[in-house]
Amino acid sequence: MQKPKTLGELKKSHYRSVSIKDEMRANLLRKLAAGEAIFPGIIGFDDTVTPQIVNAILSKHNFILLGLRGQAKSRILRALGSLLDAEIPIVAGCEINDDPLQPLCRACHERLQEMGDATPIDYLEPEQRYIEKLATPDVTIADIIGDLDPIKAARGGHTLASELTIHYGLLPRANRGIFAINELPDLSGKIQVGLFNIMQEGDVQIKGYPVRLPLDVALVFTANPEDYTARGKIITPLKDRIGSEIRTHYPATLDHGLAITAQEAWTERQGEKPLVIPQFIREIIEAIAFEARADKRVDKRSGVSQRMPITCLENTISSAECRALKHREATIVPRPSDIYASMPSLTGKLELEYEGELRGADTVAREVIRQAIAKVFRKHFDNVPLQSVVQWFELGGTLRYSPNSSSEELFQQFKKIQNLLEKTQSLGLKAKDDPALLAAGGEFLLEGLYALKRISRNEELGYHTEHRPTERPDEEPAPMAPRRRPLN
Description:
By secondary structure, this protein is an alpha/beta fold. Helices cover 43% and strands 11% of the residues. Helix 12 crosses helix 14, helix 13 runs antiparallel to helix 14 and helix 13 packs across helix 18. It is elongated.
């Protein structure tokens, strides 16, 4: 069926005007009835954030998402476009997307009076109906609402008191769509006043000229909770006019975090060599974020973005990729030493408290990695007897190698340590697996023992234990130090 191209054809098609909030509500109800995912790709919010957003939309509220950085706030707002119709008719050429049956602006009223049913019609798709603005202190009322344009006045022969001289800002241009403002508290008080006037009364003053614009807009915002609740950051009348306040959060479980990182990280490198990422490497990287969020040296008000494990995984893969190319290995397999090599992707995302600043970002990052390795190590080896491996070091064994050593070199060195490679079966590895995988598993086992202080590691000696020198026969034996309790 051919789309109407003029106002007359639109009237004959029995088109009925629907407000943006009614449109979103109707499409959301259809999705709920069909059992469709409301926000595909948003993981971990099904039982917390999503139901609150659903309630806000069904109630036709403007709403705000409060959350720390990296909690998918902007992504959720952009996903609201999926609740819009495939297309809507507008008066062709209108700056504020006027409904042909209910025009707002003076220019469209005059055009409809002049052309009548022959007025041409255009169509807007969902992507064109979502407008997003990052709030900054330098944003002006002209940017958001509009300003008088002397050039328009001169070309059209209008006085500056005419509505036809207005150059509309972002908010009027979002008419019949969704207008999103990120970091709302960063807007100046004057802009916030302009917003709540438009939201409630539908009018605003531009340089002393009153403009009546009952816009049809769904307003959505994001903010950091600290900024939103601080005095002077957001004016009370604007807070009062926001229908729903919804708090986001970081992944509640390691599995949710793993799913998000796997979805967002760039792991499909399209290289000549296949990439194999051991599951325990993914778990360690995700556990780093969880440990950092719980660390008292990290600023809780700033948070630890979910972008951290994403970029860490990408850097870890890149480190393994370089090593595999250098040694001409058949597969790319990241191992724990590659996670340490990815520290530049961690330190920039940790906002430290005073104690953390004294220690330094690198030191804090290393300790957080070590805590994460210990956590994942306990999960896989909690019931596995590892005394034979520890004993090899207690008897004087040491193991030192470069992080850039080839997988084959590590594999041969790990074979010398009694039962080390056999114990990697707890990771799901088998003796016939690729040596690169076994080397990664062996290094994880050693790093786990080091993280739990069962063995030691330093630049000079590599992995070792602090053991006593052999006593001479004429010396009285020194008292035995208490042995650490084995993992099993």
